[in-house]
## 1
Amino acid sequence: MKAKALVVVFAIVVAAGVCSTASAAEVVIGALNDMTGATSDVGKDYALGIGEAVNYCNDNGGVNGKPIKLVQFDYGYRVPEALTKYKLFKRMGAVAVEGWGTGDTEALAPTVTADKMPYVSASYSGHLADPKKTPYNLFAATDYSSNARATLTAWFDKRWSKHADFGKRKPRFACSYMFASPYASAPIKAIKDQATLLGFDIGPDQDVSLFAVDTKSQVLSLKDFKPDVVWHGNTTMSVSATMRDAYALGLGADHIMNLWGFDENLPRLADKAAEGAMAATVNAFYGENTPLMPTVVEYAKKFNPGVPQEKRLSRTVQGWSNVLALWEAMKRADKAGALNGEGILQKGFETMKDFDLGLGGAKLTYTSTDHRVSGKVPVYEYKNGKFQLVQVTDLQGRWPDKWQSWLGW
Amino acid sequence: MKKQSVLMTLFGLAVAAFLLAGCAGVQKASDATFKTPEVTLSHAEIPSYFGYWFYNNKVQPSLPENAKPGNNGAPLIYAFIFNLKNTNDFPVLMDNMKFTVALEGFELNTVGSQDEIWIPAGKTTQLRVPCVFGMFEAFMSLGVVGGMDLQKMGKKPWDMLEKWWTTAPDFAFPVEVRNGSAVFKADGIIKVAAFKAKYP
C-alpha cells in the first residue's frame, strides 16, 4: 500500500516536473536608462541597443545555458531615481547593472563598490577607470580623458601639421562646455594637460549650457583668442548650436568634441558647420562595416520594427558593446564557478586581454590595476558627408612613461 | 482495501496523464503558424491629476526641516490602455512592450511593460501602461533635445509645459504613441508587433 502510494506521488511529481522544465534558472541584470530626461535623445537609442543585445545573447546560449533576464528602467536622468532603481535591482537578485550617465554612476560608485556589484556604465569618465577607487565600475570603451587626449593629438597630427602657421607659432586651443555638468567637465583637466604636452596656447574656457541654442556671446569671446581648435564637451544639440554660430560668425577654428556630441544627428543639426568635426567615438557608427554590425542591424529590425532605421544611432552600438562585454565576463565567471559580483569582476572582466567585440572599438583589456580598456583610441571625422576614421592614436605607445600617471583623471 | 489501492493508483496515473496532456495537448506554435498578435491603442486616460506648479532649487521646502531644495513640479500622468489580440489557436505570452510618447511632436517619454502577460487562444487582453512625465525631466528634455525645434516655433520650454499640463485633462491636444514594439512568445518562437497610434 505504501509502495503504491509512493508510485502515485512519484508519477505526479514527474509529470509536474516535465511541465515545469521550461523555466531554467535566469541570470538577472538591471539596466538604468534615460528615456525621458535631458539625455533621452541618445539614451533611448542606447536603451534599445541594450535590449536587442540581450536578446542576441539569449539566442546564443545566454550565460552558458542560463537565460539572461533584463530588467530595464528609465530614471529620467535623476540621481535619486537611479538610487531607488538600483535598490530594486538588488532585491530582484541582479548580478550586474548596465548603467548610464556620469552624475548617477559617480554617485552610485561607493554603493556598487560596497555591494560588489559590477556596474557597466555609458559614462566613460576617466574618474571611474581606477580600480583602486572604483573597482566595480567598468565600461567597454576608451574613457573620456583618453578620448579627449587622443582627439586633440589626432588634430595636432593631421591638421596642424598642414596649417600655414605650422612651425611659426604655437597652435591655440580653447574649451567650450557646461561647467556644472559632471559629464562635460570630466575630461577637461586631461585635455588641457594634453594641450600643454603638445605645446598649445590655451585660451579661456567658455561656459555653454546643455540647453544653449544661441551661443553667439561665447563665440565672440572665443574670437578674441582666435583658437585654431575648440573642444566641445556637451551633447549634440548645444554642440551643434555652437558650431553653427561659430560658422556664421567666422570663428575659423576646427571643432573637436566628446563622443556624446558627435553622432548621426550632428550633421542634421549643424548642417555645413559639421564638416571636419572630429571625435573619438569608441565604436563604429550604426550600419558601418564591422564583423558584428549586420547582426546589430538585424536585431534592431527584428525587435524594434517600429523605429525607422534612419533614426538609429551609434548609441545602439555603444549599448551592444557594454552588453557583450558583460556577457563575456559573466560566461567566464560562470565557467569558473563564480557567477557573482566578485567573480564577474575578477574571473570575468579582469581576465580579458585584447578581446575584440567586432564593433569597431578598441580591443578590451581589463586588469586588476587598470580599467582603461586600451591605450589605442580610434578617432573619426565627419568629412564629405561621411564619418570616417582619421587615425588610431596610440597614447600608451607614444607616451609610455606618462600613461600610468594618467589613470583615474 | 485492495480495490481502494487500485483506485488510488488509477487516480494518480490519471492526474499524471492530465498534467502531461496539459503540456503536450495544446497546439504547438511554429514560425509558420504563429501569427503576430495585434496591438492597438484602445484609449488614453489621465488617471490622476496634480495641476500645474513648479518650484526651483532656490525654494526651501516647508518640511522636513533642513530638507534639500530641488527642482520639483507636478507630474503629468497618462495611462495608455492597449488591446492585445491573439488570433492564434494557442496561448501567447507577451514578454515586454515599449513605445515612445510624443506631445505635439516632441518625443518626451519612452515607457512600456516588462510584466509577462498571457493571452488565451483567440482572445483579446487589455493592458494598462502608466506613463509619468516629471515636469523638470520634460523641461530638460525639451531644452536639451528639442531646443532647436522650439526656437523655430518661437517658443520656450515653459510655454509648452504650461499648455500641456493645464490642458491635458481635456485632451486638448492629441497624444501620440510612436515606435511601439511588443515581443510575443510561444513555444520558443518570438514574434514582434510594431504599433503606433494617436489619441484622440
## 2
Amino acid sequence: MTHQEIIIAGFGGQGILSAGRILAYAGMLEGKNVSWLPSYGPEMRGGTANCHVIISDEPVGSPILNSATALIVMNGPSLEKFESFVVPGGLILTDSSLVTKSPARKDIDVCEIPATKMASDMGNLTYANIILIGKLIAKTGVTTIQNFTEALKKVLPEKKHYLIPEEIQALEAGMNY
Amino acid sequence: MGEKLLMKGNEVIAEAALRAGCRYYFGYPITPQTEIAHYMAKMMPKVNGTFIQAESEVAAINMVYGAASAGARVMTSSSSPGISLKQEGISYASCAELPAVIVNIVRCGPGLGGILPSQGDYFQAVKGGGHGDYKLVVLAPYSVQELYELTVEAFNIADRYRVLAMIMGDGTLGQMMEAVEFRDKEETPDFKKDWALTGTGMNREHNVVTSIYIKPEELEAHNIKLQKKYEQIALNETRVEVYNCDDADIIVAAYGSVARIVKNVIKMAQKEGIKVGLIRPITLWPFPSKAFEKYAQVPKAFLTVELSAGQMVEDVRLAVNGKNNVHFYGRMGGMLPTQKEILDRIKQILK
Amino acid sequence: MAVVFKRPHALKDVSLPYCPGCSHGIIHRLVAEVIDELGVEGEAIGVSSVGCTYNNYLFFNCDMAQAAHGRAPAVATGIKRVHPDHVVFTYQGDGDLAAIGTAEIVHAAARGEKITTIFVNNAIYGMTSGQMAPTTLLGQVTQTTPYGRKPELHGYPIKVCEMLSTLEGAAFVERVSVHDIKNIMNAKKAIKKAFQTQLDKKGFSIVEVLSTCPTNWGLEPVEAIQWLQENMLPAYPLGNFKDKDMEV
C-alpha cells in the first residue's frame, strides 16, 4: 500500500514548489489520491520555501504534515527545521552540494546526493530538484518515469516542453545514483 | 465528468465561477486569496467578461451591487480584513435582495492579524457582520473538489432565493492543490430576473433596486418577507456530512480544513479502540442543527475543534441543547492543531 | 389647444418633496428633459445616492438603483459593465460625492467609466440638517462649524471639477449653476453634452451644479439665490474644465 507524506524544503528559487507539484501530479496520474500544500506569504520571497505532498491509496485527510515519511532538503536550515519530522524508518534525501551537515538521526534511511553539482555538470543548475525527486521515486516507487513525463507535460508551459528530455535525463541520473 | 486535474483551491473557485456563468468579477488584492483575482484577470477577457481591480473592497462590493442589480452573475473575493470592509455593501445587497457570491479565504485576526489559516470569521459570516437582520448562505468546503461543487451551487442558491452566498475557506484550502474533476457542462436553471435593471425599453414600469424603506410599516413587512425567505432556505439548503457517528464514543464537530485533520484523528483513534464520529457542517448558515439533535445523546460527549477562540461551538451547544456536554479545542494565530493534540484532548474528555 | 410646456416623460407625475427654494426640483427636471430629448429613457439606468435625493428613484421613469452613501459611482460601474450600451447616470450631493465617496468618484473618473454624474453642490449637508460639507465655504456657518469654517480647523473647500479634470479618464467636466433662467439653460446644455459624451463612449462625464439650500443656510429662497451668486460663484467659477471634443 502506498502512503507517502513528503516534505520538500530549501531556498526560494530552487524549484522546491514546482518539484512538489510535478511529483503530486505524477502521483495523481498513477491513480493515487494526492495533495500539495505550499508555504505561502512573505516567506516565499527570497526566504525559505517548502511544500507538503501526500500521495496515498487512501483519501487524503489533512494536507498539513506534522510528520513525514520522506524529506528532501536543499539547504542547511531546512534540515535543521524538518529532520525531527521524519518518522522512524523514514527517508531523508539531502542535496549534499549545499547541505554540508549530515542528518544526526540513526533511525532513518539517509541518501546524500550532490544534486546541484550533478546538475551543474549537466549544464543546468535548475535540475537539482529533479535529480532528488528521481532518487525519491527510486526509493519509494510513488510513481513511474512514464507518469512523471506526463506530469511534466501538464505542469510545464508548452514552450518549455522541449526541456522534457533533459529533465527525464536528470530524473534518471537521480534514480541511478 | 471530464479529466482529473491537479489544481490550486483558489484557482478552482475562479474556474468554477466561470463555469457557472459568472462573467463579472470585482476585487482588491489581499493574501491568501489573490490567485482568484489573477485567474479572473487572465480568463475574463477570453470569455467576454469583466474583471476590475477596484480601488477598495468597499468599491468592489458596490460594483457587485451594481452588476447584480443589472441582472448578471457576479462575484467578489477577499480575505478577512477585506471582508470587514465589504460589510456595508453586504448588508445593503441583502436588503435589496441581490444575488451574488462572495468568497472569504479567511486569515487570522483581529486587525491586520496574519495571513495563515483561521476560522475566526465564523461569527461575522453567520451571525451578520453588517447591520440589521439579514443572513448569508455560508458554504464551507473542505476539499478542492468541494470548492468547485459548492461555488457552482453558491451561484444557484443566490439566484434561486435572491440572496448573497458566501464561500468560506482558509489559506490551507485556497493554497493547496488537489485533484478536481469538472463536469463537461453546468446545468444552470433559468432564473427569470424580471426585477433586474435592464432598461424599461419604454414598455414596462420602471424597476427599482433599493435597500431603504422609510415607512416603518413597509420596512417591517420587508423584514418579515426576508425572514420567511431565510426559513425556506434553512428548510431546503442545509448541508452536512455525518461520518462515523453511530455508536461513537465522542462526536467531533469541525468544518473546512479542520474537518480533514479530524478525519485523520478518527483513524488514529480507531487504532487505540476509541470510536470518534464527525459532524461536519457544510452550510454554516443554515446550521445543521438537526444532525446534532439527532445524535445529541449518542456519544459520551461532543468536542468542537476550530481555528478560533470558540465560535461555532456556540451553535453546537444550542443544537445539543443541554442534552450532552460540549467541549471545545481551538488554536489561533495561524497555529494548527495536530492530530495528536486533538486525540489527547479526546482521551482527556473520555477519561 | 397647443401644449407649450409639459412635464418631461422621464419624470414621474409625483410632487417632489424638496423644500421651497431648493434647486433639486429644477435639476431633476433638466435631467429628465435631456433624457427625453436624447430619446434614451428606455435604456437609461439611474443611481440614487444618500442625501436629500436618496429616494429620487421614485421620481424618474427609467430603471433606478439606490446606492449606499458615496458608492453610486461604483454601483454605476457595475451596471454599466453589464449593460455597456445603456445610459447610466448617478445623482449625488456634495457630502456623498466629495467626502464619503471621494475614492469612488475619483477612480470611476480615472477608469474613464462611461457614466454621467450629476453632482449637486450646495455647500452643506441637507438631509442631516446643515452640517459642514467638503464644499462648505471658508467662514460659512453650519451646525458643525458654528463659528464659521476656519482653514486651520476645518481645512479648505474641495473644488471637484478642477480636481477631476486632471484625470485622463474624465472626458467632460463642467460646472454650472441654476440660479437664473440663463444659467438654467446653460446647465441643461451641459447635462445634455455630458450624456452625449457617454453615448459617444468617450469616457467619464460630470456636471457640477451649484445649488441652493435655503432651509439649512437659514435664508429665504430669494435671499438664497442672492447668497449663491455672492458667495459660491466666486469660490466655484462656472465653466467647462474639460471637453475631449474640443481637444486637438
## 3
Amino acid sequence: MDTFVLSRIQFAANISFHILFPTITIALGWVLLFFKLRFNATRDPAWMAAYMFWVKVFALSFALGVVSGITMSFQFGTNWPGFMEKVGNVAGPLLAYEVLTAFFLEAAFLGIMLFGASRVAPWVHTSATFLVALGTTMSAFWIIVLNSWMHTPAGYELRDGVVHATDWWAIVFNPSMPYRLIHMLLASGLTVAFLIAGISALRHLWGDRSEEMRKSLRFGVTLGALLIPLQIFAGDMHGLNTLEHQPQKVAAMEANWETGPRVPLILFALPDEAARENRFEIGIPAMASVILKHDPDGVVPGLNDFVAADGTVMHPPVAPVFWSFRVMVGAGFAMLALSWAGVALMRKRGVDGLPRLYLGALAGASFIGWIATLAGWYTTEIGRQPWLVQGVLTTREAVAAVPSGMVLSTLIGYLAIYGALILAYMVTITTLAGKAAKGQPLPAHRPQLVPAE
Amino acid sequence: MIYDNLPLIFAALMGLSILIYVVLDGFDLGVGLLFPFASAEQRDQMVASIGPFWDANETWLVLAVGILLVAFPAAHGAILTALYLPVFLMLVGLILRGVAFEFRTKAPKVQKPMWDAAFFAGSLLASAAQGFMLGIYILGLNFTLWHIGFALLIGALLTIAYSFIGAVWLIGKSEGALLARAITWAQGGIWGAVLGLGAVSVATPFVSARIAEKWLAWPQAAYLAPLPIASAALMGVIYLCLRRLRAAPDAHRQWTPFFATSALFALGFGGMAYSFYPYIVPEKLTIDQAASAPESLIIILWGVAIVLPIIIAYSALSYVIFRGKSRGLRYD
C-alpha cells in the first residue's frame, strides 16, 4: 500500500480512537454536574454515590482523551503538512482557540474537581465541575467549527493558492456548523445515557439493589428516551443540510447512481463501483425522494453527476458511506426501542422489577453510542472524499512524502496500543461496576497517601 | 508596530510554552523515571504529588505544538516530518504514562505492577525521545551517524535531567523516608543536568559559523557571558543546598533546589534561543519566512492576550490549592 492510503488509515485509526473518549466526557461532565446539584439540593447520599462512581469513569475517559488528543495534534504535521500549508490561516486560529479556551480550562479544573473536594469550599468544587463540563463542550465547539468548515467552507478567499480568512463570522458559523454541532452533542448525550443505563443494568444483574444503582439506571434510560427523538430529528435536518451543500455525499449514502424523481430508499444493496450499479438491491419505491425532498416526485441527485468528462471520479467511495450510514441509523433505532421500552417497563414494574432479558439487552448495549458515533463520523468524513476541504483541497494534495514503511510501522504500533487500551478500558469499567455491585464501600475514610481509586 | 513583529511575538510565545512545558512536565516525567527506585508505598506517594497537575502540564506541549502549527506552518511540516519516528515514540510514551496514571488504581489489582511498569516505560520513552529530538534539532535536522550518536547522548542526558528535576520536586512535596530517598536521587542525578547543559553548549557553536561567531567572537561573547556564569552559580547553589538537606532534611529550605533547577533550565533554554535566533529550523528557515498571514496571527494574538493571563492565574490557583506536602489523592 502507498503512503497516501496508509496515512489515511493511520489518521482514521487515531481519530476514531480519540473520538470515543470526548464523546463520553462531553456529556458526562454535565451529568456529573447534575448529580452534584441534585445532591446539593436533596442531600440524598445516593446522588453523591452516583457522582463518585461516574467521576472515576470520567477521570479514566478524560486521561485517554488527553493522550490520544496529543497524538492528534502531531498528526497534522507528521502526516498531512499540506493541510496547514493550504488552509492554515483558517484552521490555525480555530485550533488555537480550542487550546486556549478549552484545553487548559478542563485540565486545570479537572485536578480540583477530582482531588479538591476536601481542600476547597463546596461551591468551589461545584464550580470546578461546571468549568470542566464547559471546557469539554467548548473544545467540541471549536473542533466542530473547523470540521464543518472543511465540509462547507465559507468566509475565505484564495490568494496565490493559499486560503486567507476574510470573514471570521462566516467561517465560524459556516452553513453546516449548527447542524453538526447539535448532532454531535446529542450523540455524546446518548452515548453517556446508554453507558450509564448499561453499566447500571449490569450492576442490577449482579445483585446490586442500591438506591444509587436505581437512580442511575432510571436516569440513563430516561435521558436516552428523551434525547433519541431529538437526535432523529436533528439527524434528518443535518441530512437535508448535507443534500444542499454536499449532494454527492447524500447520493453515496443512498447508493443512488442516477439523478431523477421517485428514487427508492434502498434497504439493502451491494454497491458496485466498477459497474456503477447496485447488486441485490431491495428498496422502498420513491421513499428516498420522500425523505430528502418530502415529495415522491422530488428529484434526488445521483452519483453519475459527479464524474468528470475525463472519467475522474469526484464522489466518495460508495459502499463504505452507504454501509456506515445504515449502521448509524440502525443503532439509532435500536436506542429508540431500548429506551422507550425501558421507560414503559419501569412505569409498570419499577426499576427492581425489570426483566432480566431487558437488563441483559441494556447491558449489552452499554457502548452502542460508540458504534453509532463512529458510523456517523465515517459517513460524513468518507463522504467528503476525495476532498479534504470541500472544493478547496483534495486529501491527496495534503499528504506528507514520508516513506510508506515508516507510516506502516507506526500504524501497526498505534493499532496495537489502541486495541489494548480499549480492552483495558472496558475491563476496568466492568471491574468498577463489579466492585460497586458487591457493595464495596466507596472511598470514605481510607488511610492517607493512597492515590484515588 | 505589533503587525510587523508578529512572527517574533509568536516565536517568543512558543519558546515560553516549551520552557514551561519542559519544567512542568519535566518534573512529572521525572517522577515516573524514579519509579523503579521506589517501594510500592512510595510510588503511591509519588503519584499523589503530581496527580492534580500532570494534565495541565502536558497541555503546554499541545500549546507549543499548536503555536508551531498555526503560526509557523512551514516549519511545523518540515520539523515534524523529519522527526517522524521520534515523535511517534514520544507519543507512545506519553500515551502509556497518561493512561497508566488512571489504570494503576482503577484496573483489577493484579494489573497494578504492569501499569507501574508502563508508567515508568512511558516516562522513559517520552523523555529519551524528547532529548533525541532536541539533539537532532539543534544540529539542523540531519541524520548522519554522528548526528544520531549525539542525539542519543542528549536523549540520555535529558532523561537524567528530568529525573533530577523530578527528585527536587519530590523534596518539596514529600516527608520522611521518601524525602530522604528524594535527596539521594537528586544528589545522584545532578551530574546528568550539568553534563546535559554542557554537551548542548559545547556542540552548539559547531552547528554553524554564524552561531560560533555569536558565541566566541568579541564583543558578542560578552553578551552571552552572564549565562554560563549564572548557570555555574545556580549549580553551586543546588549542590550546596542538597548537601545541607542531606544533613538536616526538614530544617532547610526544601523548595530551593526545585526553583534553582527551573532557573537553570530557563537559562539553558534562553542560551539556545539566543543562538538560533532568527532561525526556527536551524540555519534553514527563519521565523519570518515560516510565519502565517498576519491577519490570522493577529486574531490569535488577541485570544492569547486575553486568555493566557487567565490560564496562568487558574493554573497557579491549582498549585496553591494543592500546595504543601502531598496528601493522599482522594476523590472525596
## 4
Amino acid sequence: MNTAAGWAKRPESRTGVRKQRNRIARRLFSISAGFIFLVLFAIVTMLVQRSLPLWQNVSLPDFLTGRVWKPDQGLFGLLPFILGTFWTTGLGIAFALPLSLFSAIYLAEYARPLTRTVIKPVLDILAGIPSVIYGMWGVLVVVPVVQTTVAPLFSRAFPGIGLFQSSNPTGFSILSAGIVLAIMIAPILIAIMYEILLAVPVGLREASMAVGASRWQTIKYIVLPKATSGLIAAMILGTSRALGETMAVLMVVGNVAALPRSLFDPAYPIPALIANNYGEMMSIPLYDSALMAAALFLLLIVLSFNILSSLALRRMLQ
Amino acid sequence: MNPQSRLRRRLARIEETAFLFLMRLALISVVMILGWILATLLIKGMPVLSWELISQPPQGGYYLGGKGGILNAILGSLYLAAGGTLLALIAALPVVFYLTTYLHQKTRRAALIRLALDVLWGIPSIVYGVFGFLIMLSLGLRASLLAGIITLAFLELPILIRGMDEFIRTTPEELVQSSLAVGATPLDTTLKVISRQTLPGLITAVLLAFGRGIGDAASVLFTAGYTDHLPTSLFEPAASLPLAVFFQLGTPFPAVQQRAYASALVLTIIILVISFISRWLISRFNKYLVR
C-alpha cells in the first residue's frame, strides 16, 4: 500500500517542482523585462540631470536659437548645429526616398523570385557595413567628386541661386554628407518599404487587374494609396536613423560651426559636435552640460520619431 | 476602339515603361553602390594589407609612417564586441524567454516591451556613447575595455532581443500547443522545445549583434579610449578597428592613411565573414526544423 501511494505521489511532487520552477522563472523573467524600461528611463534622466546646470545660465530659447557657440566665453547657441543636422538629414532623405521607393516597388511587384533572393543579401550586407567604412568611402569617392565636378558644375549652371553657389574649396560639405547618408539609410528603407508593400492584400491587386488595369495602374491607384501611411512611417524611421548618424557624417561634412547657406557649405551636425568635443568638455565650465543638453535635444527628437514610426508600422504590418 | 482610348492606352504603356526603367535603375544602382564600396576597399586596402600589419601592435613612430601594425585594434575590437555581446546575451535571454513563454503574442504588455525595444534600437550610438560615459563616471571608471564592453552591451541589447524574438516567433503554434498539451510547463516548453527548434536563429541573432558591436565607433570613442598596447586588462583602455580607421585616416601622412584603408578592409572582412556564417547557419539547420 505504501508503495502504491509512493508511486502515485512521486510524479505528483515532481510536477509540483516543475510548476514551482515555472512560477519562479516567470517572476524573474518579468523583472528582467522591467530592466528594458529602466534603461530607457535611465538614459533620459541621466541626460536631463547632467544638462541641468546649463539652464541656470542659458535659457532654453537662447540655447535653441543662439547662433554663437563659444564655450570659453559661456556662449552656447545650438542653432548652427541644429541646422547642420536638419540640412544633412533632409538632403539624405531627399536622395534616399526615390531610390528606396522605386527599388521596393520593383522588388514587391515586378521582380522574379531569383532577383529577390539575390537582392536580399546585398541589402543585408549594405545595412551591416559600419559607418566608418561609409565615411571613408565618402572621403575617398564622394568628397573628391563633389569638389572637382559637382560644385563647379552647379555654380556655373545656376548663377544667382545661392543654394548652388560654392564658396567652399573643399568637397567636405552638406551635399557629400547627404549622399553618404542616403546610401546608408537606403537599405533599411528598402527593406521596410518592401514589407509594407507586401502587406497590401493580394486580393486588391487581383480585383484591380481583373477589371483591366495594368500592373503599373494597379500600383498607382490601389497599392500605393493603401500603403501610404506605412511608407511615411518608414520614412520617419529612416529620418531618425539619419539624424543620429555620427561617424560617417562627421568624416565628410567639414565640421564648421556656421549657418549653412549652400549645399556646398560645410556644416556641423549635433552628433559630430558631441563626438568631437567630449575630450575637452570637462575643462571648460558648463561645456559638458551644454553637450549633454545637445545630446538630450537629439535624443528627444529621435525618440518621438521612433515611437511614432514604430506604432504606425506595427499597425500596418499586422 | 476609338482613337482617343487607343491614345490613352498607349500613354499608359509609355508611363509604365518609363517607371519600370526608373525602378530597375534604382535597384541596379543600389547593387552597384555596394560593388563600388567593396571595390574601393579592395583596391585601396589590398596593396597595403600585409602580415606585419595584422600581426603587430604599433611600433615607435607608427603614426608618422613607422613600423608596426594594427593588432592592438583587431584584438581590442574582438574583445570589446565579444564582451559586449556576452553581457548583452546574459541580460537578453530572460527577456526573450519572458516575451515568448509567458506573454501571448498579442498582449498589451508584450506590445509595450517590443515598442520599448524598438525605441531603444533606434537610439543613436553616439547617445549610447554619452550614456556609457556617464555610467563610467558614476562607477568611478576611466576609459577602459570594461567601460567599452558595458556601453556596447547596452547598444546590442535591443538588437539581440528583437532578433531572437523575431526568430522565435516563427515557431509553429502547433509545436508549442502539443508540448503544453502533454503537460510540459511553459518554462519546459521554452527551454526544451522552442530553444532547440530555433537555436540556429538564436545564434544568428547573436552574430548579428556581434557584427553591429564590432563596427560601432561612436559608442566606444568615449568609453574604451584608444591605446597602442595590446589589451591585457579590463581596466586599461582598448583600441578598436573603427577608431583605427578613423584616426589613421585623419593623419596628414599618406603612408598612415593607407593603413586606414587596410584596417577598413580587415574590419569589412570580419563583418562579411560573420554575415556569411549566419547565412550558412540558417540554411544548414533549416532542414532539421519542425514545420
